[in-house]
Amino acid sequence: MEDGFSSYSSLYDTSSLLQFCNDDSASAASSMEVTDRIASLEQRVQMQEDEIQLLKSALADVVRRLNHSEEQQAMGSRRGPTKADHLCWISILGC
């Protein structure tokens, strides 16, 4: 029984593949492209990590403001709305 690889050698011309693999200039160019691509991807990942940190910070700020407004609303429902409550909403909404 012949091995599985020898049966495929007649189907494909491997000489061009071997020439490409042995060509140092093609290998060097390919290596530089890979290195550039990796550097680009690393930079992109860093930018995305920075953006995630910014989004986390913004979300934490929203949660703090929401908690503050809920506390003010709970206090306001006990004593009724005041001008201070109105000013609180203005500061929360940034008006």
Automatic annotation (TrEMBL):
The keyword Coiled coil applies. Keywords: Coiled coil. Residues 31-72 form a coiled coil. This is EMAP like 1. It comes from Poecilia latipinna (sailfin molly). The lineage of its organism: Eukaryota, Metazoa, Chordata, Craniata, Vertebrata.
